[in-house]
Design goal:
Blueprint lengths: L3 H19 L4 H31 L1
């Protein structure tokens, strides 16, 4: 189990990488883009699961 210090260092490193990837894009715009992608992935995965499991249940 990582210590609190290691966890804080990891947290800071992740934020640095996220800031580098985001670049000059406003944080709000970036958040909207990422949330849109996450929502699309959630919907896509659930449609696939629904198409696999629901026909077997009937």
């Amino acid at each position: 189990m990582p210590s609190n210090r290691e966890r804080e260092e990891l947290h800071k490193a992740i934020w640095r990488v996220a800031d580098d990837l985001r670049g000059s894009v406003d944080g709000w715009d970036f958040k909207q883009y990422i949330l849109g992608i996450m929502f699309y992935r959630y919907i896509s995965e659930n449609i696939i699961l629904r198409n696999i499991y629901i026909p077997k249940m009937k």
